[in-house]
Design brief:
This protein is mainly α. It is built from ten helices and no strands. Helices cover 69% and strands 0% of the residues.
């Protein structure tokens, strides 16, 4: 067996051969773990490097700064979460209440162990400092994407005479109530979102179909 070139160890050669995507993923995974343990303020670049086992130069190769890193964690975490929950698809004969119970019921089960995009996003939502601009924008983009999905679903399922504005307003209500349920899941130890999903589904069904 030939010795490693230039006196490099096998571990060093393996690290050199690691594709850039792999080191990027390691950095984001480390940041996600640390923010769960220490929050955003306690998650420093130095700690991310220590947890990921990568040098500072590797972090700054992939990310402009800590703000950019957390923004990318939000986008990646959201994309991963999105494939795990039911789509906002309209099925024949689906009622508003049934559809909301199906989608929100499964989605809210993830609240107890917050995905990284929610954990980070909720921390920066009210933070207007310049330190978290990219992170906050990434989270607001995620919320807007969810709002558009729900609006499109509502537009197809509520009575046509209510108009597109009502569908958009109902989507805003769903998003706002979901925010409240996220907070509730972190406050109350015996959180059971099912009853709140039922209340929300029933209330919105009553608005969408007032004569039913």
């Amino acid at each position: 067996m030939n010795a490693p070139a230039s006196g490099a160890t096998e571990a060093q050669l393996k690290n050199r051969a690691s594709p850039p995507e792999r080191s990027r993923d390691r950095i984001m995974a480390a940041a996600s773990e640390l923010v769960k343990e220490r929050g955003i303020a306690g998650t420093t670049i130095a700690r991310v490097c220590q947890r990921s086992g990568l040098p500072v130069s590797s972090v700054y190769w992939h990310f402009e700064d800590k703000d950019h890193l957390f923004a990318e964690v939000i986008r990646t975490s959201f994309a991963t979460w999105l494939v795990s929950v039911p789509r906002w698809d309209v099925e024949p004969e689906t009622t508003v209440a049934e559809g909301l119970r199906r989608v929100l019921g499964q989605s809210t089960r993830t609240f107890a162990d917050l995905p990284a995009f929610l954990r980070i996003g909720m921390q920066v939502l009210l933070d207007t400092s310049e330190d978290q601009v990219k992170t906050r924008e990434a989270y607001l983009d995620v919320r807007q994407q969810v709002h558009r999905m729900i609006t499109a679903w509502m537009t197809q399922i509520v009575p046509g005479e209510l108009g597109p504005d009502t569908a958009e307003d109902l989507a805003s209500l769903v998003v706002a109530m979901s925010d409240g349920m996220i907070v509730g899941s972190q406050i109350y130890p015996n959180w059971g979102p099912e009853e709140y999903v039922d209340l929300l589904a029933g209330a919105i069904a009553g608005i969408a179909h007032p004569s039913a």
